[in-house]
């Protein structure tokens, strides 16, 4: 669940699962898409090193310039290595728990959404929507 609560009372399940994985407890997510696909995924890829990113993510990252906005940053899969590489990166995620994990892993991150960025984020030269995050732009 990427939404923080949505009125469901479930809380930040995604953030809790990322926290557990970050603390060394193997965790999984259940994804249920609008098209009916249901899947179970190990959360390890959310913590992958740059060398382990999919080829398409590596290709996209080769064109990064200037200040970077990583929308749907999760645990910082892209933001953390890019920060280590010297880029000025800000991660945005709707999950407060994910933002906390990304910060602990060494990158700047804030709670927000693609359609509702925090007011004080400033401008960016590169905007990332990696890791199948293009759906963040779909208005519901």
From TrEMBL:
It holds the Pfam family Methyltransf_25. Keywords: Methyltransferase, S-adenosyl-L-methionine, Transferase. GO terms for biological process: methylation. GO terms for molecular function: methyltransferase activity. The keyword Calcium does not apply. Residues 68-132 form the Methyltransferase domain. PANTHER family: METHYLTRANSFERASE, UBIQUINONE BIOSYNTHESIS O-METHYLTRANSFERASE, MITOCHONDRIAL. This is Methyltransferase domain-containing protein. It comes from Actinopolyspora righensis.
């Amino acid at each position: 669940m990427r939404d923080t609560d949505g009125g469901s009372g479930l809380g930040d399940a995604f953030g809790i699962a990322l926290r557990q994985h970050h603390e060394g407890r193997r965790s999984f997510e259940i994804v249920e898409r609008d098209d009916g696909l249901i899947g179970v995924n190990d959360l390890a890829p959310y913590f992958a090193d740059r060398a382990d990113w999919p080829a398409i993510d590596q290709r996209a990252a080769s064109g990064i310039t200037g200040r970077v906005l990583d929308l749907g940053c999760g645990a910082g899969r892209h933001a953390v290595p890019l920060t280590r590489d010297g880029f000025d990166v800000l991660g945005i995620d709707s999950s407060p728990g994910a933002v906390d994990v990304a910060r602990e892993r060494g990158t700047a991150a804030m709670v927000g959404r693609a359609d509702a960025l925090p007011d004080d984020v400033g401008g960016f030269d590169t905007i990332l929507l990696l890791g199948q995050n293009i759906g963040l732009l779909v208005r519901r």
